[in-house]
Specification:
Layout lengths: L1 E4 L9 E5 L4 E7 L2 E5 L4 E4 L5 E4 L5 E5 L4 E5 L9 E5 L2 H5 L1
Antiparallel strand pairs: 1-8, 2-9, 3-6, 3-8, 4-5, 4-7
Length: about 100
């Protein structure tokens, strides 16, 4: 488990990731955040207190507002060695 809050890297999302060994759970505790899911980076506006389970093998990333605080749950050994990445351009995906 970990907390996630705003960082400048959330201003310009350029990649999606998928974990090969674990689901990843996000819970918005306060503020604003948006999940990007699937190769087309479908935008899901998160609601405070809801649990969002991204299944293993599903492309995703998260856009976090400056006021946000999230709880993240994943296997303790989730790392770059068992995660894949693809580049995206959100402007192109919005067509």
């Amino acid at each position: 488990m970990a907390y996630l809050s705003y960082a400048e890297r959330f201003d310009n999302i350029t990649y999606l990731e998928k974990h090969l060994k674990t689901d990843e759970i996000f819970v918005l505790l306060k503020g604003r955040a948006m999940l990007l899911v699937g190769k087309k980076a479908e935008q899901i506006i998160m609601e405070k207190g809801n649990m969002y389970n991204v299944k293993k093998g599903v492309w995703h990333n998260i856009k976090v507002g400056q006021d946000a605080l999230l709880l993240i749950v994943e296997n303790h050994d989730t790392c770059k060695d068992n995660t894949e990445y693809i580049s995206i351009n959100l402007k192109e995906n919005r067509g």
